[in-house]
Amino acid sequence: xxxxxxxxxxxxxxxxxxxxxxxxxxxxxxxxxxxxxxxxxxxxxxxxxxxxxxxxxxxxxxxxxxxxxxxxxxxxxxxx
Length: 80
Prior knowledge:
By secondary structure, this protein is α/β, with parallel strands linked by helices. Helix content is about 40%, strand content about 20%.
C-alpha cells in the first residue's frame, strides 16, 4: 500500500523539521512548503491526502491559501 501523501506548510524551520521527521517516522510521504505561494504550487503538482497548514505565512497567509485550494478541491482535508 502506498504511503499517504501530506503537504506540510510551515515557515519556521525548526517546527517544519520536527513535524516532518515525526510524520516520516510514521510512514507518511511528506512534501513541504515554507510560504503560501510554494504551498499552492505543491498542492497543484500532485494529489494529496492531507494538508497541514500554518496560518501565519510569508507571501500568502494560510487562510488565503485554504481559500484558493477550496476553489479547486473540496475533498482534501486541511488542518490549521
